[in-house]
Amino acid sequence: MKIKDNKVVSLIYNLEVNGETKDSCDKENPLEFIMGMGYLLPKFEENLLGKSIGDKFDFVLSAAEGYGELNPQAIVDLPKHIFEVDGVLQEELLVPGNFIPMMNQMGGIIPGKVVEVSEEAVKMDFNHELAGQSLHFTGEITAVREATEEELTNGLHGERAMHNCEGNCSSCGGC
């Protein structure tokens, strides 16, 4: 069976950025998803179309095809007082390199990386950790099957039903 939209795909992969492994999954814990449902990077899915069980893959996504170019507007200075809990500054969080979950204007949680801490402000970078990077994927397709009607409605693991976001996960923060 070949990979196309609405098929459940299982695969193992290795993601390298500049020769360093950033993410991987193996046969004991493969990545499983429904093709064409928007769960993964569109160009990642596109590179898998037409492949079958046992097929290997090796491709590179440009920064634009991956998590986008670095956006200077996603690097912001936030007032230090917003990192207070019950009037106490959470200084242990405010270490350059730390990722802190922050809430956006729509109530979704997004990770921000502490870049710099000054007397009055904390510079945070809300770019994706892999923004601006070329992504080198290698791997193998381990299974392909038809998705059930329930999976198409609710998601492979019920995620579409749980978050009730009607598939538009770019804004709900739940997926």
Keyphrases for this structure?
11 strands; 175 residues; Chitinase A, domain 3; 2 domains; 5-stranded antiparallel β-sheet; mainly beta
- What is the radius of gyration computed over CA atoms, rounded to a whole number of angstroms? 19 Å
Fill in the CATH topology of the largest domain. Answer: Chitinase A, domain 3
* Count of discrete structural domains: 2
Q: What is the H-and-E element order?
A: EEEHEEEEEEEEHHH
Beta content comes to 35-45%
Uncertain stretches: 162-175
How many helix segments? Answer: 4
User: Structural class of the secondary elements?
Assistant: mainly beta
Morphology: elongated
> What does the average pLDDT come to?
91
Q: Give the name of the CATH architecture of the largest domain.
A: Roll
User: CATH class of the largest domain, please?
Assistant: Alpha Beta
Helical fraction equals: 10-25%
Task: Please count the beta strands (DSSP E, at least 2 residues each).
Answer: 11
Terminal Cα separation, in Å? 28 Å
Describe this structure in words.
This protein is mainly beta and 175 residues long. The chain folds into 2 domains: 7-67 and 131-169, Chitinase A, domain 3 (Roll), CATH 3.10.50.40; 72-125, Beta Barrel (Thrombin, subunit H), CATH 2.40.10. It contains 4 helices and 11 strands; from the N terminus they run E-E-E-H-E-E-E-E-E-E-E-E-H-H-H. The strands form 3 sheets. Strands 1, 2, 3, 4 and 11 form a 5-stranded antiparallel beta sheet that branches. Strand 6 (84-85) and strand 7 (88-89) form a beta hairpin. The longest helix has 7 residues, at 42-48. It is elongated, with a radius of gyration of 19 Å. It starts with 6 loop residues before the first strand and ends with a helix. Residues 162-175 have low confidence and may be disordered.
